[in-house]
Specification:
This protein is an alpha/beta fold. The protein folds into 2 domains: about 180 residues, Medium-chain alcohol dehydrogenases, catalytic domain (Quinone Oxidoreductase, Chain A, domain 1); about 170 residues, Rossmann fold. It is built from 13 helices and 15 strands. Strands 3, 4, 5, 6, 7, 14 and 15 form a 7-stranded mixed beta sheet that branches. Strand 8, helix 5 and strand 9 form a beta-alpha-beta unit. The two termini are about 20 Å apart. About 5% of the residues have low confidence.
């Protein structure tokens, strides 16, 4: 089969690799009909290279049809399913608590990490990912989400990651109807964080440097601002000088901005070109994130409010303004999304004919799998109005 593979920092290549096969009676194999590039895939593309191996199949936002079903998978050939990005058993202590990202059955204990993820480095098990023509699904008796036949793929695809991640970010923000929320960053996750909060009856502000991303959010009733102190002041003025009740950081480790961010970027990039024996411990023990979005969130949120982190952070030595956090009595919540925990809330919304979350206004580029290398570069550089790319493994390569 063909698959998008990691070949080095900023180098994705579509290669011919062996077809996946069933390895356990609760496995399944799907033919992938749609698979998206996630903002966190860009971390593999650049920052997390020390934990990647040449030839790793990437991608963790797939859906498709079952072509092989293990006897204990609970699936049948032909079932249309969406695959959550984490691999969980559904039976252990953490799964029973709705913390599927901490699944005790699939935890990557070798690296002290939580549940295995599809296509996401040694840290999460080096499990082959979903940017491929076919995908093996471990624990298919629990993970896959069966969906209907009537709606196009893009209505369901984002149940794999984007929608549950955004839903959890809003839920963790501890806000309710009538409250105010600010969203830092209007990439794919930020777009849906803002729309979900708006749908749930909140006033939503968003800060984003790219004009096309601000325009997309504004179409859905979001009050948008460019980065800068003037915008922070304007949002505070709009919230009676206090700041919003919650701020959602949907940017994460690759934020742009201050000198600390420039130094962190330098250390991140330097690590990519060192031997793994040096770069992995360096990232594990001394890695720093670019924190300008998080610092702005802490400055902006009202006293006693909540900062909810949905952007991925990977540094172990990132400096935080503990005095400010303590003095302002700020709650900080975070974590990988526990996909299955939120599906019952989200599925009716993506199937609603009125499309309350605007899923039809989200995908900016749909390309053949063969175009994955160019798509990664375009997404990373924010070119051509790129906000969300969906790859079609079954489509022929463009001439």
């Amino acid at each position: 089969m063909k698959a998008a593979t990691w070949q080095g920092t900023r180098k994705i290549s579509v290669e011919t690799v062996p077809d996946p096969t069933l390895q356990a009676d609760n496995d399944a194999v799907i033919e992938v009909t749609s698979t998206a590039i996630c903002g966190s895939d860009l971390h593999l593309y650049e920052v997390l290279g020390p934990f990647m191996n040449e030839g790793d199949i990437v991608g963790h936002e797939p859906m498709g049809r079952v072509v092989e079903a293990g006897s204990a998978s609970g699936l049948s050939v032909g079932d249309r399913v969406v695959v959550p990005f984490q691999i969980a058993c559904g039976r252990c202590y953490y799964c029973s608590k709705g913390l599927q990202t901490q699944c005790e059955t699939t935890q990557v204990r070798e690296h002290g990490m939580g549940a295995q993820l599809f296509g996401y480095s040694q840290l999460y098990g080096s499990v082959p990912g979903g940017q491929a023509e076919y995908l093996r699904i471990p624990h298919a008796d629990y993970g896959p989400i069966k969906v209907g036949e009537e709606l196009p793929d893009h209505r369901y695809l984002f149940l794999s990651d984007v929608l549950p991640t955004a839903w959890q970010a809003v839920a963790y923000a501890k806000v309710e109807q009538g409250d105010s929320v600010a969203v830092m960053g209007l990439g794919p996750i930020g777009q849906f964080c803002a729309r979900i909060a708006k749908h749930l009856g909140m006033t939503v502000y968003a800060i984003e440097p790219e004009a096309d991303r601000r325009e997309m959010a504004a179409r859905h009733g979001i009050l948008v601002y460019e980065p800068g102190e003037d915008s922070v002041a304007a949002i505070k003025d709009a919230t009676e000088g206090r700041g919003p009740d919650a701020v959602i950081d949907a940017v994460g480790m690759e934020a742009h901005g201050d000198m600390q961010g420039a130094m962190a970027k330098f250390s991140q990039l330097t690590a990519q070109f060192l031997p793994k024996a040096i770069s992995q411990p360096m990232m594990n023990n001394f890695g720093m994130d670019r924190l300008s979005a998080l610092y702005t969130a802490i400055e902006l949120v009202r006293r006693g409010g909540t900062v909810s982190l949905s952007g991925v952070y990977g540094g172990q030595a990132s400096p935080l303004p503990m005095l400010t956090l303590f003095d302002k009595q700020i709650n900080v919540t975070m974590g990988q999304a526990n996909v299955k925990r939120w599906i019952d809330d989200i599925l009716p919304l993506v199937e609603d004919p009125t499309d309350p979350l605007g899923v039809d206004d989200f995908v900016t580029h749909r390309l053949p799998l063969a175009d994955a290398p160019a798509a990664y570069e375009m997404f990373q550089k924010k070119e051509q109005g790129c906000i969300k790319v969906v790859l079609d493994p079954q489509a022929p390569a463009q001439a």
